[in-house]
Design brief:
Elements: H1 21-26, H2 40-88, H3 97-156, H4 158-164, H5 180-194, H6 206-220, E1 226-227, H7 229-232, H8 240-252, E2 256-259, E3 266-269
Antiparallel strand pairs: 1-3, 2-3
Helix pairs in contact: 5-6, 6-8
Family: Belongs to the DASH complex DAM1 family.
Keywords: Centromere, Chromosome, Chromosome partition, Cytoplasm, Cytoskeleton, Kinetochore, Microtubule, Nucleus
Protein name: DASH complex subunit DAM1
C-alpha cells in the first residue's frame, strides 16, 4: 500500500489588514479603485513628497551642522586671540607713564653724579699738579741751599785739603730735610704708583715694598728724573738685585722707560699716563 502523500509545510500568511491597498483595490465599497498596479501611483506620489520633505530636512540639518562648525572655529579663534592678547598686551608689569618719569629722573641723577665725579677728578688733578709744582719748587730750593752749603764748605776746607793732596776736595752739602706735610704728600704720591704694581710690591713683602718706594722716590725726585742703576743702589737694604727687580717691574708697567742708546743703561721716569 503506497505511503500517503505528505502536504509540505507552509508558513501561514499574515492576515491582510483592513486598510491594505489590495483590499482597497478589491473592495466593492470603492468601485472606482484602480485595477492592477494602478493603485501604486498615488502611494508613490505621496512617498515622493515625503522623500522630498525628508531631503529638505536632512539638508537643513547639514546646513545647521556647517553653521555650527563655522561658529565653533570662529569662537575658538576668538578665544585663542583673547588668550594671546592677555599674554602680550594685558601685562601688569608693563611700563607706564610713571615708569618713564622715574627713568628720566634716574637718568638726570646719574648725569649729575657723573658731572660731580668729573669735577672732583679735575679738582684732584689740579691739586696734584699744584702739589707736584710745590714739590719741584721745594726740591729746587733744597738743591740751591745744598749748593750754597757745598760752596761754603769747599771754601773753608780748601786750605786743609790743599796742604795734604794739593787738589781741592769737594764735599756734599747736607740733605734737605722735609717737613711732616711734605713727607705725607710725597708718601701719598708714591702710594699712587705702588698701587698699580703687582701684589708682591704692594704689601705681600714689606721689605720689597720699602725698596720699591725708595726706587720710585729716587727716580721721581731726581733733578732730571733720569738715573742709572748704580745711582739707586744703597746697601745693605737696597742691593743691586733688589734695585734691578724693582726697575723691571716699573718698566713692565711702563712707569719707567729704559734706554741704552748711548751705551749706558738709563732709566727715565715717565709716570702713569
Amino acid at each position: 500500500m503506497p505511503a500517503p502523500t505528505q502536504t509540505p509545510h507552509r508558513t501561514p500568511l499574515k492576515r491582510v489588514s483592513q486598510g491594505s491597498l489590495f483590499r482597497l483595490s478589491r473592495s466593492n465599497a470603492f468601485p472606482d479603485a484602480p485595477h492592477g498596479l494602478g493603485f501604486l501611483e498615488p502611494a508613490m506620489a505621496e512617498l515622493l513628497d515625503e522623500t522630498e520633505t525628508l531631503h529638505t530636512n536632512v539638508q537643513g540639518m547639514k546646513n545647521l551642522s556647517d553653521s555650527l562648525a563655522t561658529f565653533n572655529e570662529s569662537f575658538a579663534s576668538w578665544l585663542y586671540v583673547m588668550e594671546m592678547n592677555a599674554l602680550t598686551v594685558d601685562w601688569s608689569q608693563a611700563p607706564g607713564d610713571e615708569s618713564f618719569i622715574l627713568a628720566k629722573q634716574r637718568a638726570e641723577r646719574d648725569a649729575a653724579a657723573a658731572m660731580e665725579a668729573l669735577q672732583a677728578q679735575q679738582a684732584a688733578k689740579a691739586h696734584e699738579a699744584h702739589m707736584l709744582s710745590a714739590i719741584a719748587v721745594a726740591d729746587k730750593t733744597a738743591i740751591t741751599e745744598g749748593d750754597v752749603t757745598f760752596a761754603a764748605n769747599t771754601t773753608s776746607a780748601t786750605g786743609a785739603s790743599s796742604s795734604k793732596t794739593g787738589v781741592p776736595v769737594k764735599k756734599k752739602g747736607p740733605k734737605a730735610k722735609l717737613t711732616a706735610k711734605e713727607k705725607k704728600e710725597r708718601s701719598i704720591e708714591i702710594e699712587k704708583f705702588v698701587s698699580c704694581l703687582p701684589l708682591e710690591f704692594r704689601g705681600s713683602d714689606p721689605t720689597l715694598r720699602r725698596n720699591m718706594e725708595s726706587v720710585i722716590e729716587g727716580l721721581m725726585y731726581h733733578p732730571n728724573q733720569t738715573v742709572k742703576l748704580t745711582d739707586l743702589i744703597s746697601p745693605p737694604d737696597l742691593s743691586q738685585a733688589r734695585v734691578n727687580k724693582c726697575l723691571i717691574a716699573l718698566v713692565n708697567r711702563k712707569v719707567v722707560l729704559k734706554e741704552n742708546s748711548t751705551g749706558t743703561v738709563l732709566y727715565h721716569w715717565k709716570g702713569i699716563s
